[in-house]
């Protein structure tokens, strides 16, 4: 039965993981943390439900391959260009400075330079899976710290490729000469270039032929073949499986089949990734943790502080506020999943010994487990600090003192720009607060009345003359900043009319409770647009549609959330409206095929059951036109009938 032990191990993994995932979901903690803890519990150093991890490691390797493949799929050259400053500047500096700082520290502790650089690379990487999950759950992906975090994480994901290429060089002994190192590096980059060229030439053609078969099973098997084949090719020339998988994903992402490939591979990735993170937990030596708790706690604390300090410094250097820098720094202060992959690869090159691997593994897992708690606690602490601090100066700059009864626009994204354009056309004074320094610089050069600042600071609101403002509009995608800014604005000017944009209807009550006069949830407005368009299709009169929209929008959207039964009552009469007749107008273009026909020749009533009751021509209405009346280009026909008849009449007049 030993040959079937892997099946037993997988059953145990899934059996233990599901309840842990459920519990962590309830606690709003990423399931990855649950997988890690599950591995610790059932592993050879826990309850020993699984004692042999070699077979599990093979499946975990498949998980890594799928993970790198999907990251390659998600890398869009266009999106990377849009985020190039965040990604290259913030991400590049973070990797270089963190690696260098950690390498210096380890060198001072007596470790060889190559091993110190390697350990610095391990520490420099953060957890894409954990951070993106936390940001998505908190609706902060579009917030400034969310965008900064994503830019840095994308660069880290891309940096794993050159890091893999550097491993053989860092693992080379002191007897290896500089020329041999350069030759090895040249071979590695040359081999990658050849593989990318071949893959770019062959993969799209293979995918096209697979798609032409119109057999889903063949397409799925073909994708897996391309993925594993490329991974095995890179492995066979001395590079890693993961590197080949990333190359395959990168090439496929540029093809028209990328979306279908994602749909086919994603379920497999999720399943194998769970096994990967459980396998990491299995490797954690709990006895080692018990023997060295102080050392591991110190390493964990130092890693978090080092990474957070470096990221905060970089974000502040980019002219972002201290609050955004802190949120970004602590959010990315953990060690990531790619560090585990890199550590296992480093063991093969002699860059980690048994004790160092255990110390690294334990401290890294602890940083990942602590991340959700840091992310949850940091905004609350910063919010309390922001609300309790006093403005450094109540003096308003002279250039802002003249502004009164104006509108303050918080955020200059699409919504902010559209509002500013309308206000400018109507002559209403306004001022914009924006947190992106590039946007401020660009728009200021165009003459836009915009200032750089954090809405959570009293002094920024003072500079906008909040005391004399008539309206403040929060058009940003940062829930925490919106709440703080709203409370500050209402404290400084209780009479200011506050309009708040939010994403979900569930946030309406909280925002209204802290002072919002109007809350516009995106998901609700989308539902109103859908409802509007559906009723228009059925020719419901405009006044009826507007009445229904007004009912839904009324009472501060609370009907949509709490009183669904009342909403149903507001639609009672729609069936009666649908059953009744209606009147619509149809404009005749100069190329209409029915032009110059008489109404008798058109014979609309016999063909559609709809009746033409009037013709509007050159501003004059011809009521009850006779059958001899010709229809001309530019005429507007007034048509009456049932909904179905009017639809048929429109189709007939269109020539369908």
Structure description:
- This protein is of the alpha/beta class.
- It folds into four domains: 2-381, Na+/H+ antiporter like fold (Up-down Bundle), CATH 1.20.1530.20; 398-502, NAD(P)-binding Rossmann-like Domain (Rossmann fold, 3-Layer(aba) Sandwich), CATH 3.40.50; 524-572, no CATH class; 581-654, Alpha-Beta Plaits.
- It is built from 31 helices and ten strands.
- The strands form two sheets. It has a six-stranded parallel beta sheet, sandwiched between helices.
- Helix 15 runs antiparallel to helix 17.
- Mean pLDDT is 80; it is low at 387-401 and 559-572.
Briefly say what this structure is:
The protein is α/β, with parallel strands linked by helices.
Q: Can you name the CATH architecture of the largest domain?
A: Up-down Bundle
Instruction: State the name of the first-level CATH class of the largest domain.
Output: Mainly Alpha
The main sheet comes to: 6 strands, parallel
The low-confidence parts are: 387-401, 559-572
State the total count of DSSP E strands. Answer: 10
> How large is the count of helical segments?
31
CATH topology of the largest domain: Na+/H+ antiporter like fold
Radius of gyration: 32 Å
- The residue fraction in helices comes out at 55-70%
- Structural class of the secondary elements? alpha/beta
- The span between the termini is 70 Å
The whole-number mean of residue pLDDT values reads 80
Strand content: 5-15%
- Write out the strand line-up for the largest beta sheet, numbering strands in chain order: 3-2-1-4-5-6
Shape field: globular
Tally of discrete structural domains = 4
